[in-house]
Amino acid sequence: MSQAQYPIGTPGQPWGAEERALWRAQQQIKRSYHDEVEAPLQQLAGKFELFQYGELNYPEGNYHLWGAQSHAWNEHLPTVLVTGGVHGYETSGVLGALRFLQSVAADYAGKINLVVLPCVSPWGYETINRWNPEANDPNRSFVKGSGVAEAEAVVNYLAESSLMPVLHIDLHETTDTDNSEFRPALAARNGTVNHNWNIPDGFYTVGDTERDQVDFQAAIIAGVAQVTHIAEADEEGKLIGEPMQQHGVINYPVKSLNLCAGVTDAPYVSTTEVYPDSPRTNPENCIEAQVAAVTAAIDYILAHAD
């Protein structure tokens, strides 16, 4: 789909308030944040300390932003931050964070301090959107003063809590709708020309150009390879237009792009990307891949981090 084909806006002209309002009016609630995220999280209250780190107040509804953390916090243990649902439409990021809490997180009690923010963008989760209601991408907005409420809630929480994680892993997906909807919408919104990328068939990670932990990323790939397939490079040796650093790994300058993975100074950071539209996988397998990525990352830092 080219920019000219997108149904909102005039080619070559960035959206104004009218176009953003039109886009917003076309969005519909398709699933329940309360039923699928909040309710399962509340069931874990006995195992973890649940906390509200923010609230989103939109005409479409109010959303409480929840986190879960270790009950017995020990300042001498490494701290791990797991985030999901920065892009609400990326389902396995949300459900993978919840599944990690439900299934294996308790195994790390007494080994790490754990903080999980399972659904950073609940409106995006309910409407299956990359953007928030104001047509802004939270994952380009993790900096103080961005004006994007979902990202600022995380930024403010981290500042107020003085959290200093050793590891931050951010759970994402790359889907076919990136090319069919979200990249064309982005180009239309910005008044630019859309260029689709090849969607990688399989799991990959995005590391940080400035914190290039080669062995750490390789450990995540090896862990996930036990449950699902790893993306191969395209004919140009790239994934989503970026050069491969090693099997299944590309790098972004995450801090300068204001990505969620750059929101802390953790020495170990990774963004996961699963491909739910592959004929070789299914929703359950994608959730399992996210859990495998988190556990492999934690196991690595327990074995190697100071």
Automatic annotation (TrEMBL):
GO aspect biological process, one term: proteolysis
Keywords recorded for this protein, A-Z: Hydrolase, Metal-binding, Zinc
Catalytic site: E273 (proton donor/acceptor)
Cofactor annotation: Zn(2+)
Domain spans labelled Peptidase M14: 29-305
A GO molecular-function annotation: metallocarboxypeptidase activity
Source organism superkingdom: Bacteria
InterPro entries: AstE_AspA_cat (IPR055438), Peptidase_M14 (IPR000834)
Record family assignment: Belongs to the peptidase M14 family.
Protein's UniProt name: Peptidase
UniProt organism field: Pseudidiomarina taiwanensis
Lineage, uppermost ranks: Bacteria, Pseudomonadati, Pseudomonadota, Gammaproteobacteria, Alteromonadales
